[in-house]
Every structure is written in C-alpha cells, then in structure tokens.
Amino acid sequence: MSLTTYSLYLAAVAVLVLSPGPTMLMCMTASLNEGKSGALASAVGSISAVLGIMTLSALGLGALLATSEIAFHPGQGDRSFLSHLARREDILQQG
Questions:
Q1: Which of 30, 36, 52, 53 could be cross-linked to 42 through a Cys-Cys bond (beta carbons 3.0 to 4.6 Å apart)?
Q2: Please, are residues 43 and 28 in contact by the beta-carbon 8 Å criterion?
Q3: pLDDT tens across 38-80, in order?
Q4: At a CB cut-off of 8 Å and minimum separation 6, what does 63 contact?
Q5: What pTM did the predictor assign?
Q6: How many domains does the chain have?
Q7: Domain that holds residue 83
Q8: For every residue of 28-76, which 3-state class applies, written as one string?
C-alpha cells in the first residue's frame, strides 16, 4: 500500500470517527450516566475498536471475506439450526 493511499485511508477513518453517529451517542450517554470516567472508558473502547478494525482491514481481512464464501458465512449451519428450532416451536404452539 502506498503512502498516499494509506494517508487517504487514515483521513477517511478519522472523518468517520470524529463525525457524530452511534459512537458519539454512546460516549455522550456514558458521560451523562456515569460522568467523566464513563465517557473516557467508552471513548477508549470506541477508539480501540476502530483501530482493531483498521488493522484487520490493513491486513487484508476484507479482501479475504470478499473472495471466500466459507469465511464470509461461518455460522450458516447455526442459522439453519436456529430457524429449524423456531419453526418447530411455531408448529408446537399452533398444534
């Protein structure tokens, strides 16, 4: 990855992190409910999550998920089992 591309990527991530959204709402809620310590903890957690996602993206996890159907749908068997249980429960309630 060239330095220009990496710089543009960092700028885009910074804009997303600094713009108001769910993360900002979470930090504001934590500050109102828990004070400065809660706001600081939620901000550190949010920044850690963004850095983790950014690291995984830089390592190519997005490309792996885009090209591998097995990696993209790891819990497909679990979902089909859960839908089977839901249908079974629905049939039991109707009968």
A1: 30
A2: no
A3: 999 998 998 898 888 888 877 887 777 777 776 666 666 566 7
A4: none
A5: 0.50
A6: 1
A7: 3-94
A8: HHHHHHHCHHHHHHHHHHHHHHHHHHHHHHHCCHHHHHHHCHHHHCCCH
